[in-house]
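idk why but the lab printer keeps eating my pages so im just putting this in chat instead. protein + pyridoxal-5'-phosphate:
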Amino acid sequence: MTVCTTASPETAAMNNNTSSSSPAPAELQAAFQAALQRELAQSSEGPTREALMRAAASACRELLGQRWATTQRADAARGDDPAKAPVRRVHYLSMEFLMGRALGNALAALGLDASLREAFAAEGQNLPDVLERESDAALGNGGLGRLAACFLDSFAELGLPSFGYGLRYQYGMFAQRIQDGRQVEVPDDWLRLGQPWELPRPDVRYPVGFGGRVEVDADGSRRWVPAERLVAQAFDFIVPAHHSERVSTLRQWHATAEAPIDFNAFCRGAHPQAAKHRVSADALNWVLYPDDSTDPGRELRLKQEAFLVSASLQDLIHRHLREFRSLHSLGKLNAIHLNDTHPALAPAELMRLLLDEHGMGWDEAWAITRQAVSYTNHTLMPEALETWPLQMFEALLPRHLEIIFEINHRFLEQVRAQFPGDEALLARVSLIDEGGHHGHGGERRVRMAALAIVASHRVNGVAALHSELMVQTIFADYAKIFPGRFHNVTNGVTPRRWLQQCNPALSSVIDERIGKTWRQDLSQLSKLKPLAGDTALIQQFRSVKRANKERLAELIRRETGIAVNPDSLFDVQIKRIHEYKRQLLNILHVIARYQAIVANPNADWTPRTVVIAGKAASAYQMAKSIIRLAHDVGRIVNSDARVGDKLKLVFMPNYGVSLAEMIIPAADLSEQISTAGTEASGTGNMKFSLNGALTIGTWDGANIEMAEAMGTENMFVFGLKTEDVAKMKALGYDPRLYVEENRALKNVIDAIAGGAFSGGDASRYRQLVDALLGRDTYMLMADFADYAATQSKVDALYKDARAWGERAVLNVAGMGWFSSDRTIAEYVERVWSVKSLG
Ligand SMILES: *Cc1c(COP(=O)(O)O)cnc(C)c1O
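predcted complex ->
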């Protein structure tokens, strides 16, 4: 039974249209050999691992290209049966897709691992070494981008007619290097060796304008005359299903100038001048802005967002007209989903295209837009909600601003009628921040979240607590105006990548016990629950974990030179470095443990290896300071002979999908320790538990639903709850009181402040210490004692291998709900289906 059968008759129909026979290995062998010959013709080195990887990728790409064409034909015919409810095609707009590597996934999906293993062996190479030569497609920051990648996998698996839309960043975000314990950012040149996966679509091109002015024709119609014109060209990246021949598409846009060089300027000899447009267009393709701390940076970011939205919507309209001839059915047959507010220009651009380019009237265009658009919010921090200075916005997108003003005018009229006399409410919910208060120097700004909410028929959060808090806090006013618009859809991860692919040994152990269907229907994992006490199963879990830990220990040695003991408890925190995620709390605990070991080296310590990885935004000084502290502490702890392997602290550089796939299967303990009420969902938490790590976590994000699914007694839950945090802050929280009354904590803070880890330099961490003793926004001091006490419980349980193993099985058994297949089935049911339009 496929997930979509239970969730959506619409998508099930699509799945059943396809058979699941694999292409004949002979066909692949031929494609592979042909591609290999092409590679060898270009390579002076012979059949290197790179050449084999690229040849395998090209061969897969050919097969996937055929599946793509079949999938598109089936989807285009989806309106042909009048007896069936029409199926909507989903357009998932996201500035980020954190895809990782593709070859391993493609081989598994196409059922070709075995035959390529042989083909590689014939060239004297083994499969894992060849797979490792592929660069990660790291076109994103973190969780939000990885979620989009998991969704593409589930779109294919569920047979959902869909397009993911993004930008083709040439240098991803950045690659993280560590120099003298500090993060250094370098361009991530992932396309250097070519991109064997992408299918360029030279015929799929759309013009995108910027700047200029709006002209009014004699009949009163308005027309935008942009000053700068770019062309968006499509590159497709195809994502296969594992249990059908369906595929999903990531269509990425690449910008070029309409007129690549100014020929007159060139003839005058003014070469830089001649290339100006080209360089300006190309800048859109460089990087995903990791931070926007400068004005030119911000402007480029807005251009990237507008570029993504305009090209994608023109593509949608073009396809819809080809398939259905008329725009009247556009809203009924297409869903446009906004992954956070980065693509929130979409409703304004769709209105512009319908009104100005296709001559539709406002009311119909607005009805279509509302039907099509839906929005996922990913943050509860008001300062993280995207806004744009009205001036910059008007200069780049004058016609869009007019449309936003009109949407706002009509919206505020409605609110005025609904809540007469409440002027403060109008100011709070307006799409325009009039700037009459703090911050941003009083300038007027466009509020992208407000636009996304007003233009959507559904808005969702990403975990139960987050969705609840979303309507109680940042979007409380909108929830009052639009009751029924707000929903929850809890995140999930794809079991294909995050168990089958990253942990083949554990997958086999699970297969032996409950069969293989969990790959398609993760809820099958609950069948492990009654087996949790089975000694043989616990032993198998243990030996798989041990082998994965040895593999990671070897990688740690190669990357950092640090020798770690695979028998120690692997305690792992890998995610973006952010104050709210509290890597600092983790490091404080490491220091406390270090001091305790030194004070009492002969006590019965449970040896631990603490692993941290993650990138800090390049302008986020506090996050960078935390990375430096991790290195400073690691250097002292790891070289102290009194400590030995009782404690090690390792920072693994350049966190990304492939590194996560190595680390997660080797983790014993998963650190999910954000301040309650700050982590929207988390998906790292799910990957760890799915791979048999136990979680130490706060009552936050999806940790809560995970604890409820597996039994709260199977998670190490600690710390303040959301309501405690709010209460304490309201009463006036003083972190110093916690430090004064906790000797261990005081020693930790004193050591950092006194320069114990910075060669006596007391200034290096002054800001960091001041933040902890001053506002301590994320309540580390208040949570420290409970965190440390809970870590002692972790130590005690780890000593009892059988009890620990039983819990590991129960963790895996409880994770059935957290598949992105279930998440997408819920989106289809509640957000994207015709039914959800009411
Ligand atoms: C899963 C994942 C994330 C998200 O991790 P969180 O712990 O949920 O923040 C970020 N980056 C990568 C590479 C991931 O695989």
